[in-house]
C-alpha cells in the first residue's frame, strides 16, 4: 500500500491551518472554566448543608 503523502504531486502544498477540519475556539476554555467553577461550588454547597452526625 502506498503512502498517501507520496501519492500527491510535489507541486501541491497545503497550509496546515487551511486544511484543518476542526477549529480552535477560544470560547471553549471559558465554558470549561465556568463548568469547573460550577462543580466546585456545587460540592462546597452540598458539604455545607450536609447534616453533621
Which labels suit this protein?
rod-shaped, 3 helices, 53 residues, mainly alpha
Q: Write down how many β-strands occur, each being a DSSP E stretch of 2 or more residues.
A: 0
Structural class determined from secondary elements: mainly alpha
Point out poorly predicted stretches: none
Relative strand content? under 5%
Largest sheet: none
- Shape summary: rod-shaped
Outline the fold blueprint.
Layout (H helix, E strand, L loop, with lengths): L3 H4 L8 H4 L7 H22 L5
Walk me through what this model shows.
The protein has 53 residues and is mainly α. It has a domain of 29 residues. 57% of the residues lie in helices and 0% in strands. The longest helix is centred in the last third of the chain and has 22 residues. The protein is rod-shaped. The N and C termini lie far apart (69 Å). Keywords: Membrane, Transmembrane, Transmembrane helix.
